[in-house]
Structures are given as C-alpha cells and as structure tokens.
Write a structure and sequence with these properties.
Layout (H helix, E strand, L loop, with lengths): L1 H21 L15 H5 L27 E9 L6 E10 L7 E13 L2 E19 L3 E16 L17 E15 L3 E8 L5 E2 L6 E2 L3 E11 L2 E9 L6 E11 L2 E8 L4 E10 L2 E8 L7 E10 L5
Antiparallel strand pairs: 1-2, 1-16, 2-3, 3-4, 4-5, 5-6, 6-7, 7-10, 8-9, 10-11, 11-12, 12-13, 13-14, 14-15, 15-16
C-alpha cells in the first residue's frame, strides 16, 4: 500500500510543478489584500497548504476538499490603521461528500471614503469548490476552483463643493476572475500546494482606462514535525516584481489556544497572532507590520460544526 501511494504521488508531482512554473511568465500584479483573515495575517500569508478552518477557502480553494461539516466566518480590519480604508469579509464552507466535493461561498468588501463621501467601493463574491482527484491511505491530491465576481463602484466627482457631496456619479464596472489551486498531501506531516489567481486574465474598465486584475502564482509547503507545531512556507511570483518569500509557524499551547507568527519579504514585514478555540467557536487575532505604514490589526470570528459521525 505504501509503495502504491508513492507511485500515485510521483505520477501527480509533475502536474504540480508544471502548474507552479508554467504560468509565472505571464503573471501580473496590482494592489491586492493577501491577508483577508486573522490567521492568514498572523502567518504572513504563507498558509496556502495549511488546512483546518472554514475561512482558508480564501487562501486556496483546494483546501475545501478536506473540510468536514459546516463552517461560517466573518472578519474585519482597518488596513494600516487608516479609518478611510475598511475591509470586511464573510463566508461559509459546507461538506457535501467526496464524490461531489465540498462547496463554499464568500463575500468581501473594500471601502474607501473621505468623510461621508464614498471614493470607491469594491465588492467580491466568490463561489468555491474543492474535490479530491486522488485519495488513498497515505496520500491525496485535491483540486480547487474559485469563481470571483468583482464589482467596482466609483464615487462621485468633486462637484461644485469640491468634496464630492454634489458631484456626478462615476459609474460601476464588473468582471469575473477564476482561481485554480492544487493541494497534495503525504501522510500527516507533508503538504504542498499551488494556486494561480485570475488564471483567465481578466481586465476591468473601458476605453483607455483598462486595468488588468492581479494575476499571481503562489506555491507553498506545510510541515508538521509534531502534532502541536505547523510550519508554513510559500513563494509568490508575479511578472515585473521580485519573488516574495513568506514563512510562518503555528504552535498549539493547549487544545484551545494557539499562537502564530510569520514573516515575509518584498516588503519586509513581521506578523503575529493568536487563536482561541472554544468548542467549535474560534476567535482569531492577527497583526502585521509595514516598513512605512502603521500596523494592520485583523480579527476573525468563525464557527465550525462537524457531523455526528466525525
């Protein structure tokens, strides 16, 4: 059985590496939030191969394949402690069986305002699916897909008053982006993952104001030397930008309390956080630095209910 498992994994590893490197040539990037939840923030966005909670479908939809039961989450952050930039997210994950795969739904909102005037309002609704392609006693390979509907609503022009309160509406535009991820596991200690964001190359805007949505390739690993410790590592590739290194560690001090820490390059940032698990109700907090801007604080609340047979 062990030999068969190794044979299966050897057969699928070329597919992982082909997806990891073949798309890096055309990837692009603009500003995007790599840390939508507290746990991801505390680990410096290095956890694309790390499972265990409902909100990780935002990190890699392939993680949905191993999710059990029902989960829901909500989170909020002030990016760089700026009151005029507010980000919130909510979603749910649902187990539906290995044959059909598991499903998830998410919605995030990024609002930029000036006093009472809205400058821009970006809403993303995501439909997520994760399913096992192969699974045996020691190894597995899962495929995940996310379809994101992005709507960007611009504020008003300055108008006669100059503050936008009596200006003209600048309109709304929308687009669909597709993310594809893979997750490979070998035993309980070794995990590898890759995700391509906006693999369909969407653009937003019209005429001379067209902008490409961020097309980013991320590959990463997670290693669990002992049950209480998980180490994470990832590399982000995007055309025209330096390769980003992300690393993190989660240490379970007790069955109900964990501490997390992380770091990344380009730019150099440090992060930390904690997780409290009270019988399926999780309270997570994360904070991350920036070389110029203030700290970003993130809090996420989640609920995880497993089936009676779990």
């Amino acid at each position: 059985m062990i030999n068969n498992s190794k044979t299966h994994m050897t057969r699928w590893l070329p597919l992982l590496w082909m997806l990891l490197f073949s798309t890096s040539a055309f990837s692009q990037v603009t500003s995007s939030n790599q840390t939508p939840t507290a746990r991801t923030t505390a680990l410096s966005a290095s956890n694309i191969a790390m499972g265990g909670s409902a909100e990780l479908l935002l990190t890699n939809p392939a993680l949905l394949a191993e999710f059990e039961g029902f989960g829901a989450f909500t989170g909020y952050q002030n990016l760089f402690a700026q009151n005029y930039i507010q980000y919130s997210v909510a979603g749910l994950s649902l187990e539906s069986g290995e044959s059909a795969g598991n499903f998830g739904l998410s919605m995030s909102s990024l609002k930029t305002s000036n006093g009472r005037s809205s400058l821009a309002d970006e809403t993303v609704i995501g439909f997520h699916h994760g399913i096992y392609i192969m699974k045996d006693r020691l190894s597995s390979l899962a495929l995940g897909t996310t379809i994101n509907y992005l709507q960007l609503s611009y504020g008003k022009s300055a108008g006669p008053s100059g503050d936008g309160s009596d200006g003209m509406s600048l309109g709304t535009t929308s687009k669909i982006g597709v993310d594809v991820g893979l997750l490979a596991t070998l035993g309980k200690k070794h995990r590898a993952a890759v995700i391509v964001k906006n693999i369909n190359g969407p653009t937003i805007g019209t005429g001379g104001k067209i902008a490409a949505l961020p097309q980013v390739l991320v590959g990463g690993f997670a290693y669990t030397p002992v049950e209480e410790v998980v180490t994470t590592f990832s590399l982000n590739f995007s055309s025209g930008h330096p390769v980003e290194f992300h690393g993190g560690l989660e240490y379970k001090l007790s069955p109900h309390y964990s501490i997390l820490t992380g770091m990344q390059s380009q730019p150099n940032r440090l992060s930390a956080g904690m997780k409290i698990d009270a019988k399926g109700i999780n309270i997570e907090y994360g904070v991350i630095t920036h070389p110029v801007l203030p700290l970003t604080h993130v809090i996420t609340l989640s609920l995880h209910l497993k089936g009676q047979n779990k």
